[in-house]
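Obj.: predict assembly geometry.
Materials: sequence records (below).
Method: joint structure prediction, all chains together.
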Amino acid sequence: MGGENPSDVPPRPPGETPEADSLPDGLLVADADARVIVFNAAAVRITGVAAATALGGDFRDVLPLHDAQGRDWWTCVDPYAGLATRTRHPERSLFLPDGTELLVTAAYRRDGEGRVERFTVALRDAAHRARQERDRADLVSTVAHELRSPLTSVKGFTATLLAKWHRFNDDQKRVMLETVNADADRVTRLITELLDVSRIEAGRLEMRRQVVDLPGAVRRVVAGRVAAGDAAERFRVEEHGALPELWLDPDKIDQILGNLVENAVRHGAGTVTIMVEPDAHKEGAAVSVRDEGEGIPPDAAQRVFRQFWRGPGGNRRAGTGLGLFIVKGLVEAHGGRIVVRRAPGGGAEFRFTVPAGAPDHAV
Ligand SMILES: Nc1ncnc2c1ncn2[C@@H]1O[C@H](COP(=O)(O)OP(=O)(O)OP(=O)(O)O)[C@@H](O)[C@H]1O
Ligand SMILES: [Mg+2]
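Observations (raw structure tokens):
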């Protein structure tokens, strides 16, 4: 077989394995001599072992795993000397010395004689998985609840109208039908939000980039709110500096702005100021939406972007708690970032940046 020895491949530092580093799961690859040749960024994060320490080391020392009974896992499976017919180990829950639980799968690549050429180990943070599963269970019960309350009201009003049509005057009927109408809108909106959430989670958001006039989009969102009944004096739009040409997805930008402005109106108070400016490096744009209400407590600054987070103490004006999760997903789909902080005069300030982008076919 040409005498070629695959273990001659020199270890590559993590910066040079961008494909592996972009994986959400930890990845360790050992060569024919059990030396670590790939240890990606997620593996560093999950294990706390620096890549420089891991690379070149024996994988058993780099990743000392034991099972729930405290047995050393590598001694149990003996990857390099065990059964030569094994191709993989199915997912197992194993532990690091500090007690961190990991979900571990492993696979072998063997040469013609059955000797191990490559041993690949994938690591997943068990706490993260448990959180995801809990989120999913929460999602089902929250969705069921959110759908049931407007539908209960629709059913109540239509049943009443059908049974006692002649007992109500036109004004009373109108009020009931308006409620039914608003509840139907709520259901539609919730379903649209849920579809967005599932696209974001599956990484299936499709970007349709075109040149977007960002200040124009902000003014349109504000005009829409005013047309729907908000006082025009509540809004102030500021533009600072010259923006570069921005290639963004106009529908998603409208959705981001619409959600942030709606939150500022609904959960905040006072004047809502929307500021559009070039970002710090002048390579993209930054938009801040600021209000003069109570703001977001600093310890909740991360949580606001999670699904179903709706503020402390049963906030009566709260919606489903999906808005900011979706906003974050849409901003990140543009390659941007979003943060929340206290506005200079109190209140919440949500600020997102988006890179200028390029036409779809150019990326
Ligand atoms: N500008 C703001 N000022 C104060 N609190 C805010 C502000 N924006 C958001 N929040 C808090 O963050 C929570 C989550 O916001 P998010 O937009 O995700 O959900 P929501 O507005 O409650 O519902 P949805 O947007 O799905 O209809 C809100 O319920 C509110 O408690
Ligand atoms: Mg909202």
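Conclusions so far: The pocket of adenosine-5'-triphosphate (ligand 1) is lined by residues 193, 263-264, 267-268, 291, 293-296, 304, 309-311, 315, 318-325, 348 (CB under 6 Å).
To do: check interface contacts against the pulldown list.
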